[in-house]
Amino acid sequence: MADNAEHSGNDESVMTTEHAMESILDAFNPFNNKLNWLLIAMPLAIFFNYQHDLTMAFLFSMISIMPLAFLMGKGTEEIALRTGEAIGGFLNATFGNAAELIIVGLAIYAASNDPEIVGTMVTVTQASLIGSILGNMLLVLGLALLWGGLKHKEQTFNSDAIQMNGTLLLLAVVAFIIPSALQYSGGTFSDVENISQYAAIVLLIIYGLALLFQLKTHAHVFATEPGHGHHEDPTMTNQNAWILLILATVLVAWMAHILVHSLEAAVVEWGMPELFIGVILLPFFGNAAEHFTAVIVAGKNKMDLSIAIAVGSSVQIALFAAPAMILFAWALGVPLTLEFGMLETAATFVSVLVVNSILADGKSNWLEGVMLLGSYVILALAFLQL
Predict the structure, then answer these.
(1) CA 213 – CA 211 distance, rounded (Å)
(2) Quick one: which of 87, 248, 304, 360 has the fewest CB in 10 Å?
(3) What pLDDT, in 10s, does the model give residues 63-112?
(4) Which domain holds residue 25?
């Protein structure tokens, strides 16, 4: 009988392992999610990279990051379902930005090892950080408001939380404006670099305190009102969700390494402005997780979660990712500053004002989504002209 019990226990363990593998493989199945068909770009990126066809390697690595970022979002969403919407939005924003952080982090590291590509990598890094903020505020939030507005005539959300995030974004924009003002006032590059590093430290401290405020001391302010959206049960175990998240993150890092390695060749071959690649293309593919997750939950009338992902992600880029990259570059001796350029800084400032104005009343509709998308298109065309 003891042997039978032992065999029974082993069978259950095997079945549990097989079920875990099945649920993870299902997440990659293109028949369950059509976006997974783009995963075929991953082996193509690897092939062209080893063939030293860097332009094609850049194209396919950039495409492959989109479905991988979605899988990261899928794992994060499963984990977030076991938490409140405030923490869930924070987790979605954090891991949704992981692809972007990996790309810019590798770009800075590559610049530290090759002086000839420092200029390109610094430009693309700065443009990518600004592009992530603009993309999340205008493109992601615009799509979410549009889709949610088409499914529901009018949607409501916690305006107090939005006001705090809007204020944090304005603070970050001030930190971006000061280095630019200093440079145009006759300050040296060393002065701009120093003020950028000091501002980065201040922004990181404020971001840490904002997390404490949001998740601990004043969590009630960010609580979702009862009746918003509908209850949704996880489709994966917590362990499987973490395995999926880690696996997708590793694959994103691999593709990001190929992308950064082939970036310089793509810029030369395509003749496309570095700013356009950094501000529009990289954030569009790298932030795919936020695109899909924020839009999907908006359609389910979970606007607090949708806005927490889109706006919260912009806050995280502005107050955490950008300052962290400044300090990382400082440690590696790469001349990266918060002086992003006149157009980039002005675009960010105006975008923050537009988003704050649209979300101030705690209500949203599809027309407001169209306004944000229209603003994003105008900015994209402007960056394409440079």
Answers:
(1) 5
(2) 360
(3) 998 888 788 877 877 877 776 656 666 776 677 677 778 888 888 998 99
(4) 1-32
